[in-house]
């Protein structure tokens, strides 16, 4: 049997669909006996209301759309868990979509969520996103939008972020303090504010500590996956004077670089130190464990969902705010130099 509809249930009972609907919604015009019969039949036949149909009728819903660049990334999976906890406790369900790091899919996803009348959207942009018309369209349709982690500064929405500049500055300073002299940077895609802030933090730390900047050691790998990290490491392996430490845009990139360096026979951290961002579980499983910036992913999800619910509660008086969460340096074996 297919999905039991309201009309199917009414047909089973031999009464009108409108009567069934009012009975299910505890309407005072329907007798208690009829309500009991309808409720019993709904349970017997497994009837479930269609939330999308209800949202189309009401022009709103109890569904929150969540857009992530990649579900397989542990950081975003943990963000989703934080979102879901807050949403569930507030009586909402979440609809999770991934852009797969492409602008085209991100645009399609925002349109689909808007068409399904979601109550609001929580979003981290893809690496390809440099045009924001689809995000503006959500706002023009009066659909509340809160950005998290990867955000568009130009859009006046709620935002939940970390201080990427400060975190990168602190991590670069750690590498300098450990005695590393030629510190490289494996960047993601140009145009993303997160990438720019982390690179600028790295540059400022070099400058403030009087450490040299070597432009050839700054490689834009165009992505945030392990394969991008391997490609970046490959470029370093070709150099006559390679880096002795590398700050990577995130943990997957750092782990990818780690594997390629190891395949080439390089010792970590003796030949090259590595550091990443996010503090993912896998970063602690490699040997030596990866030094990383610990990002509060679960807390970021909870905070973003709470900010969206605040906007849903009072759309007219809501004023967008940016919430910056704390990070911590997770100093591990991949950046520990014995002779310092």
Protein architecture, described:
The chain has three domains: 6-49, no CATH class; 61-162 and 297-326, Response regulator (Rossmann fold, 3-Layer(aba) Sandwich); 164-295 and 329-335, Response regulator (Rossmann fold). Helices cover 43% and strands 16% of the residues. Helix 1 packs across helix 2 (17-24). The radius of gyration is 25 Å and the shape is elongated. With 340 residues, the protein is α/β, with parallel strands linked by helices. The protein has helices spanning 6-13, 17-24, 32-45, 51-58, 74-89, 103-115, 133-140, 164-177, 193-208, 226-237, 251-263, 297-313, and strands at residues 63-68, 93-98, 120-123, 145-148, 158-162, 183-187, 218-220, 245-248, 273-278, 291-294, 322-325, 328-330. Strand 1, helix 5 and strand 2 form a beta-alpha-beta unit. Strands 2-1-3-4-5-11 form a six-stranded parallel sheet, sandwiched between helices. The protein has a six-stranded mixed sheet with strand order 7-6-8-9-10-12, sandwiched between helices. It is built from twelve helices and twelve strands.
Provide the descriptors you would attach to this structure in a database record:
340 residues; Rossmann fold; six-stranded mixed beta sheet; 43% helix; alpha/beta; six-stranded parallel beta sheet
């Amino acid at each position: 049997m297919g999905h039991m509809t309201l009309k199917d249930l009414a047909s089973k009972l031999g009464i009108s669909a409108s009567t069934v609907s009012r009975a299910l919604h505890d309407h005072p015009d329907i007798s208690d006996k009829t309500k009991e019969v309808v409720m019993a039949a709904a349970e017997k036949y497994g009837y479930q209301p269609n939330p999308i149909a209800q949202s189309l009728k009401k022009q709103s819903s109890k569904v929150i759309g969540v857009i992530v660049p990649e579900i397989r990334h542990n950081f975003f999976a943990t963000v989703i868990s934080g979102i879901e906890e807050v949403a569930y406790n507030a009586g909402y369900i979440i609809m999770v979509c991934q852009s797969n790091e492409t602008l085209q899919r991100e645009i399609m996803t925002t349109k689909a969520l808007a068409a399904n009348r979601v109550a609001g959207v929580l979003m981290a942009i893809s690496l390809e996103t440099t045009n924001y018309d689809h995000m503006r369209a959500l706002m023009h349709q009066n659909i509340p939008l809160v950005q998290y982690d990867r955000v568009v500064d130009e859009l006046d929405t709620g935002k939940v972020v970390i201080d990427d500049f400060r975190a990168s500055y602190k991590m670069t300073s750690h590498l300098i303090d450990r005695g590393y002299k030629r510190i490289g940077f494996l960047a993601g895609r140009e145009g993303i504010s997160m990438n720019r802030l982390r690179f600028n933090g790295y540059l400022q730390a070099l400058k403030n500590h009087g450490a040299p900047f070597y432009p050839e050691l700054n490689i834009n790998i165009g992505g945030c996956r392990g394969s991008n990290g391997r490609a970046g490491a490959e470029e370093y392996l070709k150099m006559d004077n390679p880096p002795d430490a590398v700050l990577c845009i995130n943990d997957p990139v750092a782990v990818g670089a780690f594997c390629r360096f190891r395949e080439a026979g390089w010792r970590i951290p003796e030949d090259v130190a590595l550091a990443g961002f996010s503090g993912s579980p896998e970063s602690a499983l490699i040997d030596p464990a990866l030094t990383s910036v610990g990002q509060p992913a679960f807390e970021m999800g909870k905070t973003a969902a709470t900010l969206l619910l605040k906007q849903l509660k009072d759309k007219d008086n809501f004023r967008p705010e940016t919430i910056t969460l704390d990070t911590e340096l997770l100093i591990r074996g991949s950046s520990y130099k014995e002779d310092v």
